[in-house]
Amino acid sequence: MSKAIGKYVIMWVVLVLLQVLLLNHIQISGYINPYLYILFILLLPFDTPKYLLLILGFLLGLNVDIFSNTPGIHASATTFLAFIRPAVIRLISSRDVLELNTPPRLGSLGFHWFFKYSLILVLAHHFFLFYVEVFTLKGFIFTFFRSVLSSAFTLVLIIISQYLIYKE
């Protein structure tokens, strides 16, 4: 158990540092901003209690907010992500998948399932994040395209990370 917790602590630190030191400085044409740190919430085990998901989502987003000087935007978006994650898992998964004692990984659940799971959650996170950031419907189309393109780039990074790190 402590080995698993240690693995998640290391993943938390690496993803937050990667986000604030490297990925926050990538901005392609004003449209693409990758947010790989949400991978932490996506890779938590299926049986993670809902209250713990919400707490971890808030604290993860708060870490990114502190280093990025964004007052609560990431904390609210990752809390939203953690909130909808159980419903998305129930929506796209069969009972057999939910009874597995494995965390949601590309290697263990297959590309199709993991892609669908990641796509829904990344899109939800990015739409929430970007619309809360602008907090107006002015520039709706710009924010929409920014959300979609950033989601696509983040999803590519998530899939690549799965192939590089989890060779199951």
TrEMBL record:
Q: Organism's domain of life?
A: Bacteria
Q: Which organism is it from?
A: Gaoshiqia sediminis
GO BP annotations, alphabetical order: regulation of cell shape
Name-wise, this protein is Rod shape-determining protein MreD
> Which residues span the membrane?
6-23, 35-60, 72-92, 113-132, 144-166
Main subcellular localisation: membrane
Q: How does it sit in the membrane?
A: Multi-pass membrane protein
Q: By which gene is this protein encoded?
A: mreD
GO-annotated cellular components: plasma membrane
